[in-house]
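Progress note, sequence design subtask.
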């Protein structure tokens, strides 16, 4: 009979042999990343095959992913400190949803050794002009549009005349 540690290792090996595609894309920093649907269905199938079940819970200080054996008393707990998300133009519950989604993704990545290049390493230290069009295009309402414009340093802001038609179109789009 396999121990829970052997079962988890078996799940990791099986997942590594499964081709995964990154469906998330950060247009501002220009990198792809894994989203939960990119690996959760594969993990669920693998866990079912090897006899494991996982339950995620959230506390004030920690998020936990508890992995249990289907048969036996084995349990492995993966933890992560809780954090907050400061999303501009979002309701408090939307920010909470973002925290939950990020925590789930990171807990699964820790537990199953899902690795990807660090987006922070890829963008840190690079001096590049902001892509104001991408910033403006990601805005979903007038407030976010104004915030996106304010994120562009004044000396780098393009002449308003150059983009006034784009701004007008975007304002019309987000106001609808």
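Output:
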């Amino acid at each position: 009979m396999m121990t829970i540690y052997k079962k988890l290792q078996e799940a990791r090996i099986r997942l590594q042999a499964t081709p995964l595609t990154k469906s998330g894309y950060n247009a501002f920093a220009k990198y792809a990343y894994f989203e939960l649907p990119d690996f959760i269905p594969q993990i669920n199938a693998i866990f079912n095959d090897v006899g494991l079940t996982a339950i995620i819970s959230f506390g004030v200080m920690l998020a936990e992913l508890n992995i249990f054996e289907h048969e036996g008393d084995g349990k492995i707990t993966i933890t992560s400190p809780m954090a907050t998300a400061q999303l501009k133009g979002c309701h408090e519950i939307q920010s909470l949803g973002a925290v939950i989604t990020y925590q789930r993704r990171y807990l699964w990545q820790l537990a199953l050794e899902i690795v990807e290049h660090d987006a922070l390493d890829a963008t840190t230290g690079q001096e590049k002009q902001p892509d104001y069009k991408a910033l403006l295009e990601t805005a979903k309402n007038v407030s976010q549009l104004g915030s996106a414009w304010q994120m562009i340093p004044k000396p780098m802001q393009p002449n308003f005349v150059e983009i006034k038609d784009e701004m007008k179109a975007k304002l019309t789009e987000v106001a609808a």
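The beta strands are 24-26, 31-33, 52-58, 62-69, 75-81. Work on this subtask will continue into the next period as scheduled.
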